[in-house]
Write a structure and sequence with these properties.
Length: 113
């Protein structure tokens, strides 16, 4: 894979800003605006499609195909979050909150809630 020249979190910040700037935009001129215009249900279905394509790439595709599909999942996840007036940064903050917590303990705590 290619060497990274920009920090990956910068890409997420730019993605979140682009999505936010496309809210309320012309669906005929912006794919993001088109997804957002169709609502969270549509955005969720698109994320599901991309997730399935990612699984297929993981099982039978090349590394490049898997990385491309993974990027599509991240993009569509960010759009879905925006459709619910959230941001990819909200998901990252949740990951930060979980840092250092055992996955088993974290899941058990959610089950008790």
């Amino acid at each position: 894979m290619a060497e990274h020249t920009k920090p990956p979190l910068d890409a997420l910040t730019r993605l979140a800003a682009t999505i936010e700037s496309r809210k309320g935009g012309n669906p005929n001129e912006s794919y993001v605006a088109k997804l957002l215009d169709r609502g969270p249900d549509y955005a969720a279905r698109k994320l599901g499609e991309e997730a399935v394509e990612t699984v297929v790439a993981a099982l039978a595709g090349s590394d490049e195909e898997l990385v491309g599909e993974a990027a599509d999942v991240i993009f569509h996840l960010a759009v879905l979050l925006a459709a619910r007036d959230l941001s990819i940064h909200d998901a990252l903050a949740e990951l930060d909150r979980r840092d250092g917590v055992s996955g088993i303990a974290e899941k058990a705590a959610r089950a008790r809630s």
